[in-house]
Design brief:
single chain; mainly alpha; Herpes Virus-1; 30s Ribosomal Protein S14, Chain N; Double Stranded RNA Binding Domain; 3 domains; 3-stranded antiparallel beta sheet; elongated; disordered N terminus
């Protein structure tokens, strides 16, 4: 049952947006898309004068007319009522942070590996040749990355796998025998490891400084609190002294007045 539902969901997903088809239309090659998605796709292709299917890459002479696929639209509505929705991730669509496959035509799928020899990135389907053919067994596969062309030496057209510490730049093995001869050099992997260690040390130092500052701040807060307590105590003691002094002055004044009045009252 789950496989049947998964198949239904896949058949009603738009190859462009990977969401449930909205106002589905079927183009001459047989693939279906959301009406707005295929319109937007062909709007971008208008300048080149070539219109293609984002799914299979087939091109058409002129911009095909679009007509709503009523049976498919009814199927979508039924599946919606049944609570079925296609999963965006199942289609391998390229997200903002993903690297696109360089081989896919039409709708680009998400790359799963990049090859430093081919200088290209491949989706799960197109990377299989690297696994299956002995011609690619010496190729270096890495996690998908952008800017592969930046890994090529502009002078010798070779992959730059060496880091020159003297000039602080990436170089290829031919550079090592020419303008960088005699320089302090290491492999790119070794330099990366060294930089990671330095970064870790810097991170620990920064963390220690933060902890020291937090400790100093806590001590400062305690000192301020102690000063406030001391100030409150001083104010309280001062008010008590002044109150007692006022009472003493009032008593002394009353006693003096009484002494002045006593002789007069005895006559």
């Amino acid at each position: 049952m789950e496989q049947s539902e998964e198949l239904k969901q896949d058949s009603i997903a738009c190859p462009i947006c990977s969401d449930l088809l909205s106002d589905p239309v079927t183009i001459p090659c047989g693939h279906s898309h959301c009406m707005n998605c295929i319109k937007s796709h062909w709007d971008r292709e208008d300048q080149e004068g070539i219109h293609s299917c984002p799914h299979c890459g087939q091109t058409f002479s002129g911009r095909p007319a679009l007509k709503k696929n009523i049976p498919l639209s009814e199927l979508v509505e039924k599946l919606q009522r049944d609570g079925l929705k296609p999963s965006r991730s199942d289609h391998g669509s390229v997200g903002p942070e993903d690297v696109a496959c360089d081989v896919c035509t039409g709708m680009k799928l998400k790359a799963v590996q990049s090859c430093l020899v081919c200088l290209a990135s491949y989706c799960e389907k197109h990377i299989q040749l690297h696994y299956e053919s002995s011609a690619f067994e010496k190729h270096k596969l890495v996690d998908p990355r952008r800017g592969l062309q930046e890994s090529i030496c502009s002078l010798h057209d070779e992959v730059m796998k060496i880091f020159c510490r003297t000039d602080e730049q990436l170089i290829c093995y031919l550079c090592l025998m020419d303008e960088h001869k005699g320089h302090e050099t290491v492999s790119l992997a070794a330099e990366r490891t060294e930089k990671q260690k330095e970064l870790q040390v810097s991170r620990q130092q920064i963390q220690q400084r933060i902890q020291d500052q937090e400790k100093d701040l806590k001590l400062l807060q305690q000192e301020v609190e102690a000063i406030n307590v001391s100030a409150d105590k001083a104010v309280e003691d001062s008010e008590k002294i002044f109150t007692e002094l006022i009472h003493s002055i009032q008593k002394t004044s009353s006693d003096v007045k009484q002494q002045i009045r006593s002789p007069a009252e005895t006559k």
